Amino acid sequence: MNEPILHTASARPVSRRSLLAAGLGAATVAMSSGTAWAVGRGPRAKHVVLLAWDGFDRAYLDLVETPHLDELTRRGSLSTTTGCFPSITNTSWSTVATGAWPQTHLNTPYYLDPMTGRAVSQSRTLEAETIAEAVHAAGGTVASVQFFIVQNHGAVYGDPRQLYLQPGGTSTTRTDLAIDILNGRPVRSGSQLVTVEQPPTLLAVYSDELDARGHQEGAESPNIPGILAGLDSDLGRLVQATKDVGIYGETAFVVLGDHGMTTFTRGFGKLVLTALRGAGFTPEFVLPGGLPRPETDVAMVVGGVASVHLLGAARTADGVARARAVLESLPPVQRVYDRSDLAALHTSPLMGDLVAEPVAGWSFGEDDPDGPRGYHGRTGEMQAGLLLAGRGSRACRPCRRGTSTSRRRSRPCSASPLRPRPKGGSSPRPYTPSSSGADRNALSVPAGNRCGHTTPPPWAAGVTPALTSPRNLNGGSLPTPDTRPNQTANRSAPCTERGGARG
Asked: pTM of this prediction?
């Protein structure tokens, strides 16, 4: 087979063109409830502005000047966050919004639902409290402009104290609405016009333009620099709005992505099917919303990586081992994770018996795409850009903007100041403290960055779900999911929420 053309944004060396002003360094942001990501000196923030830039690959920072991002960085830190696995949009933002690993919040992407037997793409499932719920419970106010993961989890249509807007459109449109909210001007929330009388405690604004273009054209798309420049301009307008309404000096700013982006040019799905058939299996790639055929004993649901579910008589320790050996023998497969590997990554227990990760440049598509395309989901896309700045931040020694942290390990970054905890009275499954501490420190700014000075969060004690285990339709014992299958049938489509059409 021909080797793919490798275009991996996350793997490119990050060599930002200039030194930033003195004062750039790691920062930790104090959030509204009174608990900080890391203990810092000085007053805590009264307001937090969270800009969620979907697909904000850290390597994009070398492509264009970002003066407003640079200016904020002088009051904090521009760094890298390492998220969760699989590095898929809804699961990653769930980790950001709750401070919990997927094994706790249970937002699970691209898997075979053991209760319905159908393949699922993405969902809004959340079995842990979100930052929006925590702020509201503490007496604060929330406004979410299409930060969809907190819709109905602390932000709803029509309520000025926990407001949700989903205008669609561009980042500029959404930023305009965020500025209107700060200025107390009426905004449309669903079918209602709502006025927020005071600047909210937490203002979150979501953009999906980088992610959408990366999926369509690959990580090296010539349109990426212009999109990032536009996001930076919108950031500058939003910062100016906080100055205009008099809250700039008491506001913390968080800008972060949920994952990176990698270009692929080749598909090897047919090779996967042929190899598994040669080992005596009856394999199938199952599209989201679909059911495996009755004779299928290896069902694979693909979202960057392949969640591999063994069915019926094949679902034995020997069957799993044989399937893993077949997948690992294929050159385009980078790694195959079993259940113990996935547990170590704090992955949702609803993922398959195996998860196969392709080599960068290859996809599990059965055919080559008709041009460069982008994907994420692999460990190679777990890193994204992260800015922490403003009130409650702590500046350290200067460092080079382009310092790569690709060899550093860091924990998922979250906007939530609280320990991950279950929904009060809303979850059917009990939660118990983790005896192993596996979820501990799931909420933190990156550890080990060159800019350094990260302190574990003060709540450092995680929780994991004590899951019920009904019999699975394939004869196994699996957790009860709380998801509804998404009927979208395009595995390579962007997984963001333009206009709420996708989960």
From this structure: 0.77
